[in-house]
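In this section we turn from sequence analysis to structure. A common task in structural bioinformatics is to predict how a protein folds when a small molecule is present, because the ligand can shape the pocket around it. The inputs are simple: the amino acid sequence and a SMILES string for the ligand, here copper (II) ion. Study the lines below before reading on.
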Amino acid sequence: MITRRDFLKAGAVAGGSVFLVGARGVTLRATAAIPGGTLDPTTIPKYVTPLVIPPVMPGVAVKDRSIDYYEIAVRQFVQQILPPGMPATTVWSYGSVSHPGTFNYPAFTIEATVDRPARVKWVNGLVDGSGRYLPHLLAVDPTLHWANPPGGSRGRDMRPDFESTPGPYTGPVPMVVHLHGGHNTEESDGYAEAWYLPTASDIPSGHAKVGSFYSEFRSKFQATWGQSWSPGTAVFQYQNDQRASTLWFHDHTLGMTRLNVYAGPAGFYLLRGGSSDLGAGVLPGPAPKLGDPGGTRYHEIPLAIQDRSFNADGALFYPSSREFFDWFAGPYIGSQHSDISPIWNPEFFGNAMVVNGRTWPVLEVEPRRYRLRFLNGCNSRFLILKIASHPTARGRSRAALPFWQIGTEGGFLPEPVQIDQLLMGPAERADVIVDFTGLRVGEELYLINEAPDEPFGGGIPDRDFPASDPGTTGQVMKFSVVPPTSTDTSVPPDQLTLPTFTPLGEATVTRQVSLNEEDSAVLEGVGPRAALLGTLDSAGNPVHLGWDDPITENPALDATEIWEIHNFTEDAHPIHIHEVMFEVIDREEGETGELHGPEAWEMGFKDTVIAFPGEATRIKARFDLPGLFVWHCHIVEHEDNEMMRPYRVGS
Ligand SMILES: [Cu+2]
């Protein structure tokens, strides 16, 4: 059956782009412009804005000196994301309530210490100066299975019925923060139905002010940690009883995560110390710390890479109609005989690259080693990153410098891995060392991206799929070499001994789960309607399950399990399991039964794994916290439309 995605590609022919035929006979699209807002991404000057290195989030002094305490709000503000001289952009992000200067997209970094708890009061501050609620910056599709505050306490966290096709929801915005990669107890995990509205003066009567699980988790938090949650807030405790690692925090509201995260709220949470970390001075540093004087040179830098599109007035662009995706103009849900949501897009690809909140920035580097902590913070886009000597370098050209990957989501790898490129699905992290030693002052290198401007299914750029547009999304940032200011005393990566890696023990249960996509059940040739998780039946066929189906994954407390993730779709999906860090065991090709071990850079603990189409990806995890959690695809458009399931540990 011709899918709408094929239809979209076919439409690109009519649009006049050039097609090439690759070595395997697949049709490749050459440099077609990526549709977006009214701002042409080729008119955005590149490499004129310095990279912003997020400073450290300040805490709040509290009597209990055994914890780090924060009060962090999400607010709306204006930031110069495009280069100076171009319009500024209204965004949302986090900042410290008592430090107005700390609101930034992405958020300032939370520096946390292994085995020292951090407690955060997360405030939904999406109100205007008069205390009235701020509507969403983007078009909220009210036909998904979503938070649905207008449904009231009975209709919240549901897919509402409509008698006519609705416009976007413009009411107060529910939010709830998830610390991604955190070994979080259930009440502090940011469950998708534990959202809360801001305490605005004009919340429409009848609206649910909190999600279905908010009150239960509020009670549990108070009973466990002795602190109550005031309206419009939640307080979460992060025990940090896990390996030193690169975590991040972002919104996780049911059916709205794609929009809430795209609007800006996200930040790094760097967990350090303990036996799973390296001693001071071994790796390149310093990283930012509180109280640094201006102009401090940093040699450990987190890099959040995100794709965004803009309108000519600087506003973020995100599709407000299904038509943007595949020109399907209805009938939609609300008209008779349709099950296609009017606004939701199955994926979204921005046409400009943003690093730490600036389009195509430049970083001055000294001829020495740097520790770079990469995050793929895109909604749908996979990244294949390479350091090249030319910004439009492509394909088989060797990397100008290798990456030495030392860590992934769950902390350090067993040993450093030298690689020419980083393949990263949404939400994956890569902790790497790049050695600029020996480069001439004035030399320039580029971080390029060769992953596709469309869903990724595995393979090699410009052979198996068209690489991203070299003029826009094929470029990420520039490194410009400046004179050294200090001596590099860090250990060269090929001589590094990383902290001991202790693998998990034997698994006692093997569980089969599935990744699925559904087209319209009523309109021929229209799809996808939704992406779903599920299980397998005894014949090995997928059983599609939605968010509200009874829980099927229920590990016993402290059980070690293997999950076989069978991908029945055409695309790769980054699968994230909350609460645990897992090992990648292997991947099995469905047709041939061929087994592939994990890639060298996947040998550590991970919280997100790429599940390729037609394969079963096996991971192993130990479920050592009881309660209710979720697992989901981190293509957040998928997550928002059924590709997320609750799971429970213990009874
Ligand atoms: Cu997915």
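Residues 1-5, 7-32 have pLDDT under 50 and may be disordered. As an exercise, try to locate the residues that line the copper (II) ion site and compare them with your own expectations.
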